Amino acid sequence: MWKKWLMVGLLVVANGGAAEPRTLLVEVDGVPAREQRKGGRFDYSDYDRVGLLSLVRDRAMLLATRAEFAALQHAGFHPVLVLESSDPLALYKRGLYGPTLTLPAIYHTYDQIVARADELVKAHPARIARVQIGETTQYHRPIYAYRVSRDARQVQDRPGVLFDACHHSDEIMGAEIVFTLLQKLVLDYGRDPAVTAWVDRHEIYLVPVVNVDGHDIVTSGRDPRWRKNARDVNGDGVAGVFPEGVDVNRGYDFNWALGGSDQPDSDRYRGEHPFSEAENRAMRRLLELKTFVLSISYHSQGEVIYYPWSWNGQVAPDDALLREIAGEVAGRITTMDGHGTYAISPGGASSQSYVWLYGRKGDFDFIIETGKGTHLFAPEDVPGIIAANLAGAAALLNRARGPGLAVHVTDAVTGRPLAAEVWLPRIENNSVDRRGTEGTFGHYWRLLRPGHYELIISCPGYQTAVRHDVTVAAGDWTPLEVPLQPERPDALGK
Ligand SMILES: [Zn+2]
Fold first, then answer.
1. Crossing angle of helices 66-74 and 2-13, rounded to 10°
2. For residue 354, how far is its CA from the centre of ligand 1 (angstroms)?
3. What is the pTM of this model?
4. Which helix (H) or strand (E) holds 278?
5. Based on the domain organization, do 409 and 473 belong to the same domain?
6. Are residue 166 and residue 284 in the same domain, yes or no?
7. Distance 134 CA to ligand 1 centre (A)
8. Could you tell me the distance, in angstroms and rounded to a whole number, from the CA of residue 29 to the centre of ligand 1?
9. How many folded domains does the chain comprise?
10. Fewer CB near the terminus (10 Å): N or C of the chain?
11. Which of 36, 62, 97 is the last residue of a domain?
């Protein structure tokens, strides 16, 4: 609506069809709550980088023409002119980075994150290992995942939990949250009983920055708006010029064509085909190394958790459980105003990481939109948002202990672990891929509410097993051993 209201201003000053450019950066303090609500003049929900740049508490930063500035005054606001410039980037830098025109030092560059993580790897090799999962599309920088476990030197037969951030590089708070969590998991192991239990029970992977090239554009002070990766889409040899790039959170092959935009200038440009971007392929590689029970992908902003999904009016097969877990996590994350906790909402079912992770990989993934009113928070707001979100991460890690089924499938003759499909036909329909055990250890951890379930376990070359009335107890994982009988060679000829 704010956009619409600004449009009215634009029409007034339009001259021969050419709109007057917004050359003023304007601050408005004391924006009343009714103007901040959906449909109000300062509604940030349809943030478009054209008008309203941020709205933190009751303070708005916006771009305006002279006529719009006058209209604000006329409407009884007290707009303050912060900067006038014909260079839009100068306005964005002042509006989003603040008076220093560069990223506040409380944030970390990717090099700083990697350097600190490397120190931890060196000092605590049993606790944390670095795994390169790929490299970036444009500048071929390494993309790292960090593995934290009881013995990080080798792959563990334990349920996986994943934390990733910065698919969208202007939403840099996520990198700070994951980076802080990474340090806490390593340094508080053996001191904090909760941390020790999480690390002992699980294999935890952390990807502080997925979109490393974009993150560098933001953290180096080049452009605070940068959301997409740095791909030189038009191939002119110059990368990192707004609005180039591909939205790497629209690049996954789950309803890919229904998500984002096919217009390269769009903030949500999905690229040429699913997994066209190396950042998405890095995440796919990670999912080849490990399957996850639970995960969080950090974004900004909105103080809301999106869970899979709302799809043509249909909910996800695990909707009740997804909602329950989203609610548990959200209920632990205090909002910036200190008066409430994050909301939850089903998200759309196209092309984003969380629907791919859930729909294709069976991982209960949640997008957490951290903070409210901007993508780049002022230094004084950063510690509070991190602390609040660590409480949410703790809730997720606590939930990764079950209840659910720990299905273990082996060859009944040799005892060898098998990669088998494990299907719960009363829950899982055709909207999700079949899940199953991985081949190395033969385990599949499947979060479930306590109750009774039916399972069909199949593997090529083995007789399919059907288990009726399997009971999942409250509390931790319920183990379920499934030895599969090899098909007799003479049966194959029939
Ligand atoms: Zn985002």
1. 120
2. 12
3. 0.95
4. helix 278-289
5. yes
6. yes
7. 21
8. 27
9. 3
10. C
11. 97
